[in-house]
Specification:
19% strand; 80 residues; alpha+beta; 3-stranded antiparallel β-sheet
């Protein structure tokens, strides 16, 4: 009986965590204009702006800068 009481919560947590992947929250990619050129962003739901990231960027732009532009766009959309 103790094994079932221990295993059941673990199984539930593992089952639910498998459902919570970023792909479940993706929106249609958007293009943000930056000083270095267009950045294509993968945004997620408005409550998950920390997941927002670039999926295409100008060659001269760093991934960090492109991701920052996407997170700023996600925050802008969240704020309306």
């Amino acid at each position: 009986m103790k094994k079932i009481a221990l295993i059941a919560p673990i199984a539930v947590v593992l089952g639910l965590s498998a459902c919570a992947t970023p792909e479940n929250y993706e929106t249609t990619p958007v293009v943000v204009q930056s000083a270095q050129g267009p950045v294509t962003c993968q945004l997620y739901t408005k409550s998950l702006t920390t997941w927002d990231r670039s999926i295409d960027r100008p060659a001269a732009m760093s991934v960090k800068a492109a991701d920052a532009a996407c997170q700023a766009e996600g925050q802008r959309q969240k704020n309306g």
